[in-house]
Design brief:
By secondary structure, the chain is mostly helical. 82% of the residues lie in helices and 0% in strands. Helix 4 (140-171) packs antiparallel against helix 6 (187-206).
Length: 235
């Protein structure tokens, strides 16, 4: 053992004091680093939340977008219902005097009503999904509604050429009655399209619960951010 130095201190006690001071300094530095990291996480979470809120539409604009979306969506259903009535006449009537004007009317309804309303419904629905808290990929009902709308619009585009050709033949006075009655019916597509639009409408009214995997991930992130903000306020 070493001899005691004046004042009762030994060489080993001086080393212990130095080690204790270094350990305390390291703990203080680590604590400051952790606090700085938590502060950065809290600020990052707050900035993400603020950015998300900026993407949401104001109340007045949201109501206007909703009214526009409902108007064009219901108008789309009405136009398809009117087209369906004409399509039934074409499919069931054997009278050329009934089939000819029905085909001409079907061409006009498809070109000037159904197609513009379909694209308007798709566009306004996308705006409502991205500009509100629902999001496009967070809830199953929103995602399914959007995919059904895209599918219905795609089928419509594929059928417009058939409808336009039939309407052109019906408008041609040289088209014989046999040729007119031999035109293929679009009844299965119009019935299926109306059914799809009604399903989309029901989903938009009832809004069934259910989050997608992406929605669950975002939900957990937002809950963690709220907890971090509360922890930051508490400390």
């Amino acid at each position: 053992m070493g001899r005691p130095e004046p004042g009762g201190r030994t060489p080993t006690s001086s080393g212990d004091a130095t080690g204790a001071g270094a350990g305390g300094l390291a703990a203080a530095v680590q604590g400051a680093s952790e606090r700085a990291w938590k502060d950065r996480r809290s600020q990052s979470a707050s900035s993400h939340v603020a950015a998300a809120r900026r993407l949401l539409m104001p109340s007045g604009l949201r109501k206007f977008a909703l009214a526009t979306h409902l108007t064009v969506s219901v108008g789309w259903i009405g136009a398809v219902a009117g087209y369906l009535a004409l399509d039934v006449s074409v499919a069931t009537s054997g009278d050329p005097s009934v089939v000819r004007p029905a085909w001409i009317a079907m061409g006009l309804v498809a070109s000037w009503a159904i197609t513009p309303l379909a694209f308007s419904s798709l566009l306004t629905g996308l705006v409502m999904a991205l500009g509100t808290r629902w999001g496009l990929l967070r809830h199953w009902w929103v995602l399914i509604s959007f995919l059904l709308t895209v599918g219905a619009t795609g089928v419509l585009l594929s059928e417009t050429h058939v409808i336009a050709d039939g309407a052109a033949m019906a408008a041609d006075p040289t088209t014989s009655a046999d040729e007119l009655l031999a035109l293929p019916s679009t009844l299965p597509h119009s019935v299926g399209g109306l059914a799809v639009l009604l399903v989309v409408q029901v989903l938009n009214v009832y809004k069934p619960q259910g989050l997608t995997p992406y929605g669950w991930r975002k939900h957990r992130e937002e809950r963690r951010q709220r907890e971090q903000r509360r922890a930051g306020v508490t400390h």
